[in-house]
Amino acid sequence: MLRRYILNKTNTFINYRYASQSMLQSTIDDKLGIATLVMNKPPVNSLNLEFLEEIKSQLTQFKNDKIRGMILTSDLQKIFCAGLDITEFSNPNPERLSKICTTFQDTWLALYLTQFPTVAVINGHSPAGGCLLAMSCDYRVMVGPNYTIGLNETKLGIVAPKWFQDCMVAVIGQRKAEVSLTTGKMYTTDQALQIGLVDESVPDVDNAINKGIQFLNNFQKISPWAYKMTKDIRRQPTVQWLIDNKQKDLDFVVKSMMSPNVQKSIGLYLQSLKK
Ligand SMILES: CCCCC/C=C\C/C=C\C/C=C/C(=O)SCCNC(=O)CCNC(=O)[C@H](O)C(C)(C)COP(=O)(O)OP(=O)(O)OC[C@H]1O[C@@H](n2cnc3c(N)ncnc32)[C@H](O)[C@@H]1OP(=O)(O)O
């Protein structure tokens, strides 16, 4: 449904390409060069290994397609993305855990450093890894007022990796990020707008898509080279630590996830979700 709406908006029933993998739908408007990537993994778009691999591979495909901009959104009612699949954290197989971590690192780098501008149309709740996906885009439009967004990892008794934290600092600044991260705060749409976690708040998804397209239209007269160089210079300090420390980051995640205390917290959190 959302895909049909976007195609209507971009006026491109004739020239669009559509690819549907099971959990991800992508369309490209050939006239405008705008792609939409719609997450569709019920019930909550949780990020497991296979879903992350699909997202990463679709981003590579968009790079090859030389698109001019991308909108990332969700086809689910009320949920943008619930973050990493928490069931993957519970009594994990260390080998699979490592693979997920590495794939997530690479997916984040690919999304954060796209050669084209990106907009997150946040049409539902967006905790933890969902918030990270949104923060990695160039622009965020959130539907309000009833959804929430934030890095809530401390509430699960886990630690958001340094690159999650740095990404948040890049968006809302050191002080607000510190309070937000340590308290694991989830912000309503209006609060998120107030602290700069999102750029615009709109009442419905139609408006959100329009705002996203308007943002991407700003780049019609900007050289793609000038855009990409500027973005790389701006974002390089945020990504460099991870590029230099992938193994260290992986070791930290695996070691902490396997610890009995963390496993206990995750078990309790999962139980509370089921309730
Ligand atoms: C695996 C290791 C990888 C290593 C990667 C490297 C680094 C990262 C390390 C740590 C950082 C962690 C990042 C994260 O993303 S942690 C995930 C945090 N996410 C959450 O806390 C979200 C929890 N969910 C909710 O708050 C709510 O579900 C919701 C999203 C607001 C939706 O609420 P709603 O009321 O609409 O639905 P339900 O709560 O009834 O949920 C429906 C159904 O989905 C299950 N579920 C919800 N969220 C998740 C999830 N993140 N993973 C898996 N399953 C989830 C929920 O339990 C329900 O299931 P049921 O069987 O009861 O129907």
TrEMBL record:
<dbReference type="InterPro" id="IPR001753">
    <property type="entry name" value="Enoyl-CoA_hydra/iso"/>
</dbReference>
<comment type="pathway">
    <text>Lipid metabolism; fatty acid beta-oxidation.</text>
</comment>
<dbReference type="GO" id="GO:0006635">
    <property type="term" value="P:fatty acid beta-oxidation"/>
</dbReference>
<keyword id="KW-0276">Fatty acid metabolism</keyword>
<dbReference type="GO" id="GO:0004165">
    <property type="term" value="F:delta(3)-delta(2)-enoyl-CoA isomerase activity"/>
</dbReference>
<keyword id="KW-0496">Mitochondrion</keyword>
<keyword id="KW-0007">Acetylation</keyword>
<keyword id="KW-0413">Isomerase</keyword>
<dbReference type="GO" id="GO:0005759">
    <property type="term" value="C:mitochondrial matrix"/>
</dbReference>
<comment type="subunit">
    <text>Homotrimer.</text>
</comment>
<dbReference type="InterPro" id="IPR029045">
    <property type="entry name" value="ClpP/crotonase-like_dom_sf"/>
</dbReference>
<comment type="function">
    <text>Key enzyme of fatty acid beta-oxidation. Able to isomerize both 3-cis (3Z) and 3-trans (3E) double bonds into the 2-trans (2E) form in a range of enoyl-CoA species, with a preference for (3Z)-enoyl-CoAs over (3E)-enoyl-CoAs. The catalytic efficiency of this enzyme is not affected by the fatty acyl chain length.</text>
</comment>
<dbReference type="Pfam" id="PF00378">
    <property type="entry name" value="ECH_1"/>
</dbReference>
<comment type="similarity">
    <text>Belongs to the enoyl-CoA hydratase/isomerase family.</text>
</comment>
<dbReference type="InterPro" id="IPR018376">
    <property type="entry name" value="Enoyl-CoA_hyd/isom_CS"/>
</dbReference>
<protein>
    <recommendedName>
        <fullName>Enoyl-CoA delta isomerase 1, mitochondrial</fullName>
    </recommendedName>
</protein>
<keyword id="KW-0443">Lipid metabolism</keyword>
<keyword id="KW-0809">Transit peptide</keyword>
